[in-house]
Amino acid sequence: LGLALYASSLCAVSGAAFLYHDYCVIGAGPSGLQAAYFLQQAGRDYVVFERSHAPGSFFALYPRHRKLISINKRYTGKSNSEFNLRHDWNSLLSHDRRLLFRRYSRDFFPDADAMVRYLEDFASLLKLQVQYNTAIIHVTLERDRQAWNGHYFLLTDQDRQNYKCSSLLVATGTWVPNVVNFPGSEYVEGYETVSINPEDFAGQTVLILGRGNSAFETAENILGVTNFIHMVSRSRVRLSWATHYVGDLRAINNGLLDTYQLKSLDGLLEGDLEDLAIIKDKKGKLHITLRFYLENRNTSAGIDSVTLPQDELDNFATRAPYDRVIRCLGWKFDFSIYNRSLRMMPGKGNKKKYPQIKPSYESRSTRGLFVLGTASHSVDFRKSAGGFIHGFRYTTRAVHRLLENRHHGVPWPSTVYPITQLTNSIIKRVNEASGLYQMFSILADIILLRENATAFEYLEEYPVGVLAELETQTGRKAPNGLFVVIMEYGRNFSGADKDVFYYNRAVGEAQHAWQSNFLHPIIYYYKRLPTEREMRLRPPDWPLPRPDAIHHIVEDFLTDWTAPNAHILPLRRFLENCLSTDLRNFFAESCFLFAFTRQKLPPFCRQGYVRMQGLVGSEGLRRHAVEAGLLEDYAPTDFSGDRPPDSREGSQDQLLRDHAIPVRPLQHLVNAKDE
């Protein structure tokens, strides 16, 4: 019967009319809307399918107790909008300043209802093409050599309407609850349906299965009304401040750790949930036992006929009966709607709740199928922020740029600068770039050197996992070497068992920068683009292969890497050593002297002074130089007429006549200060 129904469905699909779009996006959550924004800005043909009547339906239900753990830092002391996104974990990227999350909530940890309103406004104000009340129930392939990727994606919704797309972007997130089946699991309540009224738990004894934020969030809600709460999970508790992973337990939810360690009845236990069994007695109490005690026994025979662990070990930890058992085990990706032709396979180990994808966020098995948002977290699981809004808003933009180059011939955005701006460009980015800061170890700025290192091309926030494919993926060439600018924590600083508050945990001196523990910029230098083999064989926990040279900018307590001696000078000298050139800036007098005393001028003089470029002289600039001790205080020339001395009107010759500077001795030029 199943085969017959499947065959009939295929026949129906093949005979039905298809609505075509270049891009189909499944899911109008944060990542789906973010992808839609970039597609719309580029003028592409796309549609977003959303099963609910409004965007962000996940946030209409979760978190159950309605407090988000993504921070909403409204004040930073800075007016730089890019910098402020480093501490805004909820806003999506757009050109509309009205669509900043701080305008929707004043709370540091906002209410989930504010996120629902925000996503509704994001979709409506930007007029994104979202088709609501459309649940995609089946996705398959149609081979066609004329298609972008050698095939089309065929989608069917709940009303049997069919759609055809050249590229498929999956932004459904992970929304299927994780369920562990064991004897007696029918007595377990799910996080998705359990009561959120604390009074329903008054005077009860509760066991919670799970050890993540949803488990602790549930415990926090009922902590003050229960007899006691026990929490069981396979792994030990992992605190986000120790692991530096925002998906681990956050401080806002960890009240139960206090009551556990201060011996106020609550407690944590470790054990494999699949080894458990639950037996319900005549009074409705739930008793915890182990599965092997129930082998060859009928669990419905009654509590008296079943051996419990406390019968053999009278101080068994969970010997007290429970009134309720609650499952809080998180969610997983929904693989059910994808036909086997797409080969959407789950990951391995602790990544099995996510589909297998490449570091480019494209499916490992199907070209043209990209996974966005939380479901793409396998790329950086437990490493960075790619499973959360403040991370995947940048990875979604990266995917869009890859698609623009692949399908429309639009190269990755870049800017070309003279080599003298190299130090400044890096310092500017590490001090304000939010994508590098949030997606540390995953996204990096790429600096492509031009021939003879006279200029460079700057590419922002490229996925380092596909560095070997840079020329193909971006449409940019790297024949003369490159720098990679990335942010990282110290190698041995993060971990569930690490003490991150030990004395002397921070490094403050530039010569010890390589020992920095906290998030800090690292610059890798390669004389040529790394190969795919080198990427595969890179050292464990390294985001990149071993470089020809590497430089750590020492960590900074204020995350402000602008100190002239600690940050800028060591960086400049590293760059100079790599390029065998002088990247300093010079006054015109120094360039004039170098022209007579050196065979080769520094780049700044060649690109500025020799080409008659640089700052236009003015009385204000001259006075500043005099006060700084960089120039002697020559008597000012009288100016006639109404034009002020620092006016830029008139010809350059007139300016030179008005601001004549006497000839200075050669010895004074030798002693002139360089900037």
UniProtKB/TrEMBL annotation:
Needed cofactors: FAD
Family from the record: Belongs to the FOXRED2 family.
InterPro entries attached to this UniProt entry: Auxin_biosynth/cation_transpt (IPR050982), FAD/NAD-bd_sf (IPR036188)
Organism taxonomic ancestry: Eukaryota, Metazoa, Chordata, Craniata, Vertebrata
Cellular compartments per GO CC: endoplasmic reticulum lumen
Pfam entry (one): Pyr_redox_3
Disordered: annotated span: 635-662
Subunit structure: Interacts with SEL1L. May interact with OS9 and DNAJC10. Interacts with TXNDC16.
Keywords assigned by UniProt, alphabetized: Endoplasmic reticulum, FAD, Flavoprotein, Glycoprotein, Oxidoreductase, Signal
Biased composition (Basic and acidic residues): 640-661
Function in brief: Probable flavoprotein which may function in endoplasmic reticulum associated degradation (ERAD). May bind non-native proteins in the endoplasmic reticulum and target them to the ubiquitination machinery for subsequent degradation.
Record's protein name: FAD-dependent oxidoreductase domain-containing protein 2
Residues annotated as signal peptide: 1-16
UniProt GO molecular function: flavin adenine dinucleotide binding; monooxygenase activity
GO terms (BP aspect): ERAD pathway
